[in-house]
Amino acid sequence: MKPDAPSPSSNASSAAISKPHSRRAFLQGAGALAGVAVVGLPGLARAADPKPIQGFEKAADDPNASKNWQPVSDRKIRVGLVGHGVCQFGAAFGFQDHPNVQVVAVSDLLPDRCAAMAKAARCAKTYPSLEELVKDDSIEAVFVATDAPSHAQHCIQVLQHGKHVASAVPAMFGSLEDGAKLLATVKMSGLKYMMFETSAFHEDLTAMRRLYQAGALGKLIYAEGEYYHYMETPIDSFKGWRVGLPPQWYPTHSNAYYNCVTGGSFTEVSCLGIPNRLEQFQAKNNPYKNTFGTEIALLRTSEGGTARMAVSWDTPGLGGEMGRVRGQRGSFYGKYEGFEKTLPDTRRPALPPGLAAGSHGGSHGQLTNEFVTAILQDRAPLVDITMALNLTAAGIVAHQSALKGGEWLKIPQFKV
Length: 416
Prior knowledge:
Elements: H1 20-30, E1 77-82, E2 101-107, H2 111-120, E3 126-127, H3 130-133, E4 141-144, H4 151-160, E5 164-167, H5 176-189, E6 193-195, H6 203-213, E7 220-228, H7 252-262, E8 266-275, E9 292-301, E10 306-312, E11 320-327, E12 330-332, E13 336-338, H8 364-377, H9 385-403, E14 409-410
Parallel strand pairs: 1-2, 1-4, 2-3, 4-5, 5-6, 7-10
Antiparallel strand pairs: 7-11, 8-9, 8-14, 9-10, 11-12, 12-13
Helix pairs in contact: 4-5, 5-9, 6-7, 7-9
């Protein structure tokens, strides 16, 4: 499909998507322009704001974070890390600090970024691309922190080479077909897949999940999730994939406030998109022909309730990943209020000594520990392939609904 005719459900979802060989060629040619934002927005410079990227604020250290932690094995999993772009996600989740991990190789298409990641991950071996790294038979698992349009494709490559895989969000990028291919590959491989959804291990969402599992919330009647990230100037990104990004193509931080609480999914959606005056949201200035800076979705849940999930790039003010839930037996708006008098332990799992909680609400260390522990215990991780795809699919269909003026649309259900 040509870049000037993108489809929300197409495998060629945007001009930002490229094949592995063209990714390296692009970056090698653009290395000198790494600080300039992107194709399609002349003169748009990378923000010089010294503040950290929203969500990257470090969580306060908890002196009791490792209290009662018990190792499940003394084995070290040999891990490869891929991707050290503007967010430097490859080394940001602390794999190098987990006592059950040995980081044996890292990769980024740009040599200077690859060297920086090797230093951060305390790893000597480097590869010029993911395609080369996955050939290393000593690697058991790979963390994919590449550009979002490549996540599904790159995870499929890792799995096809016989390695467990974890991925940054989202699981697929505007393409339900890519999700189906990824699911089929996971099922065929029998290996672990996990998406690193940061909201899933927020302190409040962890409490909601524990309360729900204990029956203290009952059936959820209503859930709200919000991802507010003001981007008048887009964050730098490979081939400008963040420029003019349809909000609901990046839905997992908000959708988690239902999916990661209950383990359920959304079955249908009506979504309204609000056009924006900012330059990047003019159709001629982004590869998606997208005009929406905010998309608000009303969804039906798999247990018959409702949810409102918002993603907004163009509204300044309080930002971040947040949500709340209301159930037949109780609600959670920062605290539990309901009928249940005997409540479960709602704290997050203990972290191994030396593994920091990290950014995004202190979720980084939790996500890494969950993935590593799932491999060691041979169990499904929390945000497994089913949850990852259902978290993402609802947003893809929500954007389709917004393009149709809020028409109610059915959402495909991904199941193993």
